[in-house]
Specification:
The protein is α+β, with helices and mostly antiparallel strands. The protein has 3 domains: about 280 residues, Alpha/Beta hydrolase fold, catalytic domain (Rossmann fold), CATH 3.40.50; about 55 residues, no CATH class; about 200 residues, Jelly Rolls (Sandwich), CATH 2.60.120. Helix 3 crosses helix 4. The radius of gyration is 25 Å and the shape is globular. The termini are far apart. Keywords: Hydrolase.
Length: about 575
């Protein structure tokens, strides 16, 4: 094991392009309870201290080293691996920082055990991050100034760390993190299967670098009879019972205990909230830069909620489509180094003189800046579902006896591979029409089962037939309750209980449409699609990892969407100009 006390000249080096990089392998970082974490550190070969950028995750530090040898891959490349997220090592060293990549407790070469998702119920990850950061700051190769680096899980770790207030952590730069952990896995109450991939190593992910050192929090803290009862209750859900992976997991939780915990907790509440980074963010006072690209709306939603919670210096940068960054991750480094140049090196480069919020607007491809989200004044206005699959700014005047509902029957995917989709479209826009913000879909629907999914996708359709996804909305029908935060065009659901639907009853379902920013150009149309499962392949899903879809409905369901004078099914969208077309 290289000794960090040796002179720089004695350290092993590797070459990256024209650059020589000094490597400190397998450092042992002591935690306050005696456990040690494993880390690698990369720096320039000149023997002097530098600011450090720390990356922490359970994905394995050796995997992150592929950034030195693997060209960045974009989806749909089959070589794309979602876990190579610690950043461009060579670029970090070139910018004169030490890149320190550590394995979290219970993962990789680190000691200790990991309990549940994000070590729920074990030693707080923020506590370990505090000890790790302060150890790095004390090393002779660090000048005492520490930031953090990395996307997704690495991004969430930055919030855990900053909330503990380690004195040497001067700022963080987070791209694509996950914050509200219920909303990370259950979108509108509908289970998202991508977390399974990250944990199990499926669907374009190497997965967590765990062996046998991760334990289920539910198995650790609940009596066996309670666990058996909760497993039996989950298996009563036809959606779960029809999905082999979930049936297997619930019967054999040792298969992957962290995923077992999530599947067993299908409702929001204390289990998620006690370690919700949105709650922890109230303790953060250091500068925070938040960056997220459009295309996966729940992550945009989370970044905005986090931005509005933070109290210290902060930035929010919403970038352009597509939704998935390269792996190894290389994007946003220019912005990150400007941020750290100011906060870690003390160079006044003007970044704090710029507006706090920057938003890329699809369609017009303009960047809009402001001090708040949304960056422009917004008027939420309706577009009504009308006969012949039209969207119009004018409501339907006919009653239900004349305006028959639209409908579709969806068989479960156990017996069909066809996903039925209803769609409604505007007329082509004659002038540019800008939308920035959060929206809603009000659906007056009748189903013949106690539950279903409502999945909406909003598209910008060009005259040549090309389409780009603008935003999505998800709602499990039994989660239709709204809470006190709801305003026009900005609905919220508590997701703290499931209320079965009375078959045959017409209910109003208000679906949250995640934040987006787009200009519909002349000749383009706005298209909304409704289904209860996701299409197995289309121009958007091709850009996501193979397992990035939602749990299908496991029972046959007939849906009727009413859109008459008494049942004004509609979209409520964030128009930025009063003279915008509807």
């Amino acid at each position: 094991m290289p000794d960090f006390q040796t002179t720089q000249a004695d350290l092993p080096t590797i070459r990256a392009g024209r650059q020589q990089i000094a490597v400190r392998k397998d450092l042992r970082v002591p935690m306050r309870d005696g456990v040690t974490l494993a880390a690698d550190a990369y720096s320039g070969v000149e023997d002097r201290p530098r600011p450090a950028l720390v990356a922490l995750s359970p994905y394995g530090k050796e995997l992150q080293a592929l950034a030195l040898s693997t060209p960045p891959q974009r989806r749909p490349s089959p070589m794309w691996d979602g876990c190579i997220e610690a950043g461009d090592i060579a670029r970090v060293v070139q910018e004169d920082y030490v890149h320190v990549i550590g394995d979290l407790r219970g993962s990789g070469d680190s000691e200790g055990e990991h309990i549940g998702n994000y070590n729920a119920g074990g030693v707080p990850l923020g506590q370990d991050a505090y000890d790790f950061i302060e150890w790095v700051a004390e090393q002779p190769w660090c000048d005492g100034n520490v930031g953090m680096i990395g996307i997704s899980y690495f991004g969430s770790m930055q919030i855990f760390a900053a909330a503990e207030r380690p004195p040497s952590l001067k700022a963080v730069f987070i791209s694509g993190g996950h914050y509200d952990f219920y909303e990370t896995t259950y979108h509108g109450g509908i289970m998202w299967l991508m977390p399974r991939a990250a944990r199990e190593g499926r669907g374009g992910d190497s997965g967590w670098a765990f062996t046998d050192r991760i334990r289920s929090r539910m198995l650790e803290t609940c009596a066996p009879e309670e666990v058996r009862a909760r497993v039996a209750e989950r298996l009563k859900d036809p959606d779960v019972a029809a999905w082999p992976n979930l049936v297997h997991l619930l019967h054999y939780p040792k298969h992957h205990e962290a995923w077992f915990d999530i599947v067993l907790n299908e409702l929001d509440g204390e289990w998620y909230e006690e370690r919700n980074p949105i709650n922890l963010a109230r303790n953060i006072e250091i500068p925070v830069y938040l960056q997220i690209d459009q295309g996966r709306g729940w992550t945009v939603d989370g970044h905005i909620e986090l931005f509005e919670t933070l109290r210290g210096p902060k930035k929010l940068d919403i970038g352009s489509y597509p939704p998935m960054q390269s792996r190894p991750w290389i994007e946003e480094h220019d912005k990150m180094f400007r941020w750290y140049e100011y906060w870690l090196k003390g160079i006044d480069n003007g970044i704090m003189d710029e507006p706090a919020v920057s938003v890329f607007v699809e369609g017009s491809r303009e960047v809009v800046t402001a001090e708040q989200w949304p960056p422009k004044d917004v008027e939420h206005r309706p577009l009504y579902l009308r006969p012949r699959h039209k969207l119009s700014g004018e409501p339907e005047l006919m009653g239900a006896e004349h305006a028959a509902p639209d409908g579709f029957y969806q068989a479960p995917l156990t017996v069909t591979d066809k996903v039925e989709v209803l769609s409604w479209s505007t007329e082509p826009f004659s002038g540019p029409t800008e939308l920035i913000g959060t929206g809603a879909a009000h659906l007056f629907a009748e189903i013949d089962q106690p539950d279903t999914n409502f999945i909406l996708r909003l598209w910008d359709a060009a005259p040549d037939g090309k389409r780009q996804l603008l935003t999505t909305g998800f709602l499990k029908a039994s989660h239709r309750e709204l809470d006190e935060r709801t305003t026009e065009g900005n609905p919220y659901h508590p997701h703290t209980r499931a209320v079965p639907v009375t078959p045959g009853a017409i209910e109003e379902y208000v679906v949250r449409l995640y934040p987006f920013a787009a200009t519909l150009l002349p000749g383009h149309t706005l298209v909304v699609e409704l289904s209860n499962d996701e299409p197995l392949a289309d121009e958007h899903n091709a850009l996501l990892p193979p397992d990035a879809f939602h749990l299908p409905v496991g029972r046959p369901v007939t849906h009727k969407i009413y859109r008459d004078a008494d049942h004004p099914s509609r979209l409520v969208l964030p128009f930025t100009a009063r003279d915008a077309e509807g």
